[in-house]
Amino acid sequence: MTRLNRRSLLAGIAATGALSAASTAQAQAPYTAKPANLAGTSVLITGCSSGFGRLAAELLARQGARVFATMRGMPRAEADELRALARTEKLDLHVIAIDVTMPEQIAAGVAGAERINGAPIDVLVNNAGIGITSPVEVQDLAATRLMFETNVFGPHLMARAVLPGMRRKGGGQIIQISSQLGRVITPYSGHYSATKFALEAMSEQLAYELVPHQIDVSIIEPGGYPTKVWVNRNTYSGALKARAEAIHTAGYPQQVARMGMEDGSGRSNDPMDVARAIADLIAMPPGTRPLRLPVAPGNKPQEPINAVTAQVQVAWLGNSGVGPLIRGVHQR
Hints:
Blueprint: H1 2-16, H2 18-22, E1 42-45, H3 51-62, E2 66-71, H4 77-89, E3 93-97, H5 103-117, E4 123-126, H6 141-169, E5 172-177, H7 192-209, E6 215-222, H8 229-243, H9 246-249, H10 253-258, H11 272-283, E7 292-295, H12 303-317, H13 323-330
């Protein structure tokens, strides 16, 4: 009887959307960053057509950085808008075509940015990402591949493209835009958490391996923000629902009915929080930047997880042969 009541309760919570409401932080003070002069710093950002990427490209360029704002599907109006902004404000901002699911575009785009820069890129911000919302059983292989190609393989290929140059010049920085859901999990989010968990693990390993090369890796973990990610997610989720097979959707009628109908309008957090956090990390002295930076007003459920895993890594491997790498990341 207890099990039946528990299942009924969970179904009711999912049906009313209370899980989503509970995970939405109340609007509080925005993330504040120290004023920075980023003149002489080159930054390549993926996913700049909207949201965090667009805001970061504008902010960093206004702070003096040479920014390479990349986006897919060019030509497009968003690229024209950024170029016009650069001309009007006399910003050192360049728009480059990169779809992170296309290795040839990554290679060409990074090579083009390095050519314009006249040197290797100083900072890579892996911001491009997508979400598809569904029960895991409903998530077909096409959706799964698209999410992993965008959220995991893309950042991996981008890092491989910039790292040889960073190592040659003896330093650099990689900033990965993950999510709270890269450390905690909510039901019916498809493979979003799976991809962000993978990104977190890959990034932490990369951080250890790059200690000898003076290249810092930091992971920003945003909470919920009202960006265009909700529009894109609805497009992908709606397409998945349209082609999903009844044998899989039959078990989740309430959740499937809501696929493609998410509404992020109730979120009042300022997306500039994440842009400011990126600027803050870049402005910090090399070797002092944190591995993980939660960014969201209100509750940050991943913070105790981050603390415990850091302690475990140091206790487990801190005195081993790779101890200097582990301590070089966690004991700053």
